[in-house]
Structure formats: structure tokens, C-alpha cells
Amino acid sequence: MHIPDGFVSPQISLPAYAVAAPLWAWAARRHFGRAAAESLPVIGSLTALAFVIQTIMIPVPGGTSTHLVGVMVLALLFHPLVAFVCESLVLLVQALFFGAGGITVLGLNALAMGLAGPLAGWLVWRLLRRFSEKVALFLAGWVATQAATLSVAGALGLQHRLDASYFPMPLAVTLAAMMVPSLTVAGLVEGLYTFFALSLVRKANLRGVAA
Amino acid sequence: MASRLDPGRSRLLLVAWLAALFAISASRDLRVLSGAGALAALLFWRGLGRNLGRTLRSVVPVTVGLSFLSLAWLRLIGGTWPPLEPFVALAARAALMGLVTFSVLDRVDALRALAPFPTISRLLAVTLAQIHALRLLSTESLQGLRSRMPRRPGPLDLLRGAGGITAALFTLSTRNARDISDAMRSRGF
Predict the structure, then answer these.
(1) Which residues contact B5 (CB under 8 A, 6 or more apart)?
(2) Which chain A residues are Cβ-neighbours of B170 within 8 angstroms?
(3) How far from B101 is each of A103, A110, B55, CA to CA, in Å?
(4) N or C: which end of chain B has fewer CB within 10 A?
(5) Does pLDDT of B137 surpass 60?
(6) Cβ of B167 under 8 Å from any chain A Cβ?
């Protein structure tokens, strides 16, 4: 789902870093200080789980594949900013230790997959949980995937509009290539994963996780 | 694997790598990209074959696939084939950035380079350890499932066992993460 290095010029990647950097600093001070010592192992485990499930490719019709993001659980358990930092960490680990993804687009990918997605999902969950917690959890995961995918496709569309000779793929192609798997497969699986993973963590009654 | 640099040099190389990637990402000229590619091949000649192979496997298929899709779409709506140069430049840029990344990461110890940042180091160490632990535990669980079944477990068998296995994996992983986190805290991280 994420944008690889070379697809987006510094015209977009640098402003994305400029937006992401203060958010990283704010989130780190607010959620990862000394007070977070208790929850850090759970956050680390869920981040590792998110990393592992992001490496599992789900085949979709048409010969391509998609993957889950898995940080919606962190947004629901802690805060969307925690999900933002953890997704950034997953992307950093992918870029620094496995050479996957991209380092120039880390800010942009983190904003799309770590902030736009989980924030949209978190808002949906807050809005719908009074009606049905189970439905709210599933829809939070589904909406998070659509919001993240739409943000990534939008960034690529913006790059095409800014300079078509740099990124020659038109928005119609990127939207179709990304949204079809997201709407049909990835969103549903992410919704189910969010529902089951959150139920599991709550049942496990772990130290550092609010009941 | 190539020999690793000390933490100070690793940090310098990481900063240079970041600057180089941003510089390459600003270019759309095929001649500039070819020159940069030749320079990268000269600088990172050690392990070049292996890193080229990794680039061909992980970066090129995505770019080429998307390019074919876009070319077909543009041909369909425009009636003529669009110019190929932007597509070739995109593929060359992405491949060059991949090659530089794999070559640099072969030479640096990223965890030691990030040591001056204790919180990020602790979270990284916990996460990396859990990635390893989760992979190990899932392999063991799969082998356990295989040993209990007279035939090779299919996707449905895996799905049936997934709930229980994931719960066990996550509980074990959290305990392991707490141990690592406590150990690092006691050492001043």
C-alpha cells in the first residue's frame, strides 16, 4: 500500500516531513515519556505484530497483492498519535533494517497510514460504539484502510498533477490500482483483524493496557 | 555481508545516504540518473551483484507493473502510445534508490548508530526482538499443528487454529517484551 522511494519528488516528500516531524515530537513527549514505561512492552509487541502482518501479502484478483496495516488496534487501545508513532517505527524498521518501503517518503507514508487511517477509524469508533461495539470495531478497521489508501493515492495523484513527467501514472490508474483491492479485500480483513485483536488484548488483561 | 562501520561513521553514512536519496528523488533526467548509477556502482562495487539482485526482485516489479498498467490506460483513452521516457526515468530512479539503500544498509549497524536516542533505541530493540520472537513462535506453532495432523494443514486448518495461536503468541511476546524493556531500563536506557 505504501509509496516506495522515487515515486514522489521532494516537492511533496519534504513538506510531508515538515508536517510529520512536530507531530512525532509532540506524540513522543505526550505518549512515550517516563509515564509510558508500563505500556511500552505492549506497544512494542503490537508494533512488531503490525510489522509481521504487513509482510503477509494477500493476493487479490488481477494478479496483484495487498496487505494489512494493523496499527488501528494501537489507536483504539491508546491514542491515534501512538498509532502514528508506531506505524512510523514500522516504516523506519522496514527502511533501515530490511531496505523495504522508503526513507524519503517516510513522513508521507506515516501521515497516510499512521495518522489519516487510524484517526478516521478512531473517529468512526467513537461515533458508533454506543450503538454496537463489535460493528464499531469492524468499521473502524475498514474505514482506516480506506482513508489510508485514499491518502496514498491522493498524494500520488497530486505528484502527477504537479509534474506529469516525474510521475506519469494518472490518478485514475493509481486510484483503481489501490482502491479496488482496498475496498474489496484489505478493508474487510483489516476490520476483522481489528475486532479480533482488540477483543484478544482486552481479554488478556495485560499490564499497561486500560481495560 | 560487508564489514560494518563503527557507530560514528555509520551515522555519517546514514546522513549521506538520506541526502543522496533526496537528491536522486529530485531528478527526472535519464543522463543524470545514469551518471548517478555509475557513481553508485563505483562507490558500492563490493556486494554489487547481490544488491542488484535484491533491487531487481523487490523494486523493479512494482514500477514495471504500474508502468504497463498506466501505458495501457493512456493508450486506451488517448488512442496513441504516450512517451516512454518518463516511465523509464521513474523505473531508473526507483531502482537506483533501491540499490543505494541496499548497499548502504549492508555497511551500517543501524541499531548502534541510533544509540544516542535512548527511547527510540528501547522501542526499536523491543520491536525487533518481538519481530524475531513472533516469527519463531509462529514457526513453532505451525510445526506443532503439522505434528498433530495426519496431513499437511491447509488454509482452513490454519484459520481454525489462528485464534488460539495468536492469543498464545501475543501473550508470550508481551512477556518477552516486558523482560527486554525492564532489562534495558535497568541498564539506563
Answers:
(1) B13, B107, B108, B109
(2) 45, 49, 200-201, 204
(3) 9, 19, 9
(4) N
(5) yes
(6) yes
3-class DSSP string for chain A? CCCCCCCCCHHHHHHHHHHHHHHHHHHHHHHCCHHHHCCHHHHHHHHHHHHHHHCCCEECCCCCEECCCCCHHHHHHCCHHHHHHHHHHHHHHHHHHCCCCCCCCHHHHHHHHHHHHHHHHHHHHHHHCCCCHHHHHHHHHHHHHHHHHHHHHHHHHHHHHHCCCCCCCCHHHHHHHHHHHHHHHHHHHHHHHHHHHHHHHHHHCCCCCCC
Task: Specify which of A152-156, B54-58, B82-86 reaches the highest per-range mean pLDDT.
Answer: A152-156
Record: contact B54-A96, CB cut-off 8 A: no
Is residue A10 within 8 Å of A107, Cβ to Cβ? no
For residue B134, CA distances in Å to A10, B38, B80, B126 come to: 36, 40, 51, 12
pLDDT confidence band for B163 (50 / 70 / 90): low
Which of B21, B25, B187 is the best substitution to test chain A (most A C-beta atoms within 10 A)? Answer: B25
pLDDT (average), residues A193-197: 87
Report the pLDDT value the prediction gives residue A127, as an integer from 0 to 100. Answer: 93
Distance from CA of B149 to the nearest CA of A (A): 24
Contact assessment for residue A75 and residue A83, using Cβ atoms and an 8 Å cutoff: yes
Chain B residues 37-66 within an 8 A CB cutoff of chain A: 54, 58-59, 62-63, 65-66
Subunit contact A48:B173, Cβ cutoff 8 A: yes
> pTM of the predicted model, to two decimals?
0.83
Q: Measured between CB atoms, does A127 come within 8 Å of chain B? A: no
Contact A40 B126 (CB under 8 A): yes
